[in-house]
Known about the structure:
Blueprint: E1 15-17, E2 22-26, E3 32-39, E4 46-52, E5 58-61, E6 64-67, E7 72-79, E8 91-98, H1 105-108, E9 117-127, H2 129-177
Parallel strand pairs: 2-9
Antiparallel strand pairs: 1-3, 3-7, 4-6, 4-8, 5-7, 8-9
Amino acid sequence: MPLPNKGGEPEFKLKVEPADMIIIKYKMKSESHVPLNITNPTKDRVCYKVKCTDNEIFRVRPPLGFVKPGETASVTITLKPKSGIDPNRHFFAIYHVACVDKTDPKKIWNANTKPDGVIRMQVQLECDEKEKNEEKDKKDEKKEEKKDEKKDEKKDEKKDEKKDEKKEDEENKEEKKE
């Protein structure tokens, strides 16, 4: 189910596939690609724009384009995974505006452009479980190593303290003898 529009935003008049949610299954060490199809059932030629919540992990190609009446535009969404991604936080916003101008879509989408329709598609990220567990195991191992290092450091500190105490005791004994 798409996310609700913000107040005053026009209803989306195009069709998108997938219709409910964009599910991206991925592995940490490789990019994942998901198709997004935008179909124009209207009688007007439209210009679309696809935006994402994080340009560091998502790429949209092409992010802008035209769709003639009755035709479909294919867009590819690419995920460049990194550790710590929130799997339920992200979405894609798709905007459209009717246009007869055949110029560059970048010229159509400026700060003053009011879209004819908006939809926000929730993204569900699904990491390969085996790889996810391996990552967790590595993190756990590192935590254990750090704990062991801290324990060793504390032991060394205690040894040093005992040596210092012995030295002081010996010095005190020497002073008493004199």
